[in-house]
Amino acid sequence: MSKIHAAITAVHGYVPDYVLTNHELETMVDTNDEWITIRTGIKERRILKGEGLGTSDMAVPAVQALLKKRGIGADEIELIIFCTSTPDRVFPATANILADKIGAKNCWGYDLQATCSGFLFGLATGSQFIESGKHKKVLVVGGDKMSSMINYKDRATCIIFGDGCGAVLLEPNAEGNGVIDSILKSDGSGLPFLNQQAGGSVKPATHETIDANEHYLYQEGKTVFKFAVNNMADVAAEIMERNNLAPDDIAWLVPHQANKRIIDATAVRTGVSEDRVVINIERFGNTTNGTLPLCLWEWENKFKKGDNLILAAFGGGFTWGSIYLKWAY
Ligand code: UT7
């Protein structure tokens, strides 16, 4: 019997309507369109506006459209893995909230926190439930409302991040398509360089933590850049080598969208030519857990059955990794 792989059988995404351009940012902080474009490749990002709306509210339209596309009901979903760094609440899990909102009554679920590598880790984890035969329909959702933890007075971070969400459905595949291999890594000594200082159990929210801006995302950009540019490129090259894949064997490189310079370095390191690198950072910025599923969603019509895709990501923690998958439809 041929091995069962976990294949992506549907993908969809959602980005909010509000477009925050570099020019609008120029009116908010001391920055300019040229600096942002040259240093990051970002021109605009989407922001979820509206009282009481959280990450799950972006997941709902993405998942509902995905289910419609695949022609299945929410009650057929067996497991939801919600990859996010901006859950609706500290608890309960956003996966549970999403299940309730879409009417998925026959599933269990959990949130996965691995910052910008979250969706990659979720895809690898979800695949295990398919490969083992435990489940036949697993939903992996990746999304963040980054605007909920960004200080729009801090020019070092507010220019980078945006809001957005995407989702994929994993199902068994006996034709050799689906997730073939993954390399996943983490290094907790990266903590000081990218984190949210207060709001967790170490430093619960107080008036003082609010006054000290400790609930915003903190990033030491230069240090994170150095780690990201080396590790994301290396791990993508490593998974190609271990699967005997030459640059020409790769139909699409799908990198986390953190900085165009990091994406370019990964393309150079893997040898994949520019026209086969999936990039939408200029329109969405860094949506953290949303970048990879949003890329898959936007490029879905260009992928062909059997295409070799290399996904790669790097994020706070530090966390990083790569997945080799064969597109299934
Ligand atoms: O996705 C999770 C992982 N995160 C990442 O991968 C992000 C990695 N880091 C980066 O992408 C980059 O480090 C940034 C885009 C955050 C910053 O770019 P950089 O080339 O590393 O700039 P820098 O922090 O070294 O700053 C260079 C200069 C500084 O001025 P001086 O000291 O040279 O006078 C900054 O104060 O640019 C200044 N600067 C700005 N100028 C205009 C910093 N932010 C801005 C800004 N507009 N928004």
Can you walk through the features of this model?
- It contains eleven helices and 13 strands.
- The chain is α/β, with parallel strands linked by helices.
- It folds into two domains: 5-175, Peroxisomal Thiolase, Chain A, domain 1, CATH 3.40.47.10; 180-326, Peroxisomal Thiolase, Chain A, domain 1.
- It has a five-stranded mixed sheet with strand order 1-7-6-4-5, sandwiched between helices. Strands 8-13-12-11 form a four-stranded mixed sheet, sandwiched between helices. The chain has a two-stranded antiparallel ribbon with strand order 2-3.
- Strand 4 (79-83), helix 4 (94-102) and strand 5 form a beta-alpha-beta unit.
- Helix 3 (55-70) packs across helix 4 and helix 8 runs parallel beside helix 9 (260-270).
- The radius of gyration is 19 Å and the shape is globular.
- Oxa(dethia)-CoA binds at residues 31, 35, 39-40, 116, 155-156, 159-160, 221-222, 224-225, 228, 258-259, 262, 286, 314-316.
- The site of oxa(dethia)-CoA (UT7) has 21 residues, from helix 2, helix 6, helix 8 and strand 12.
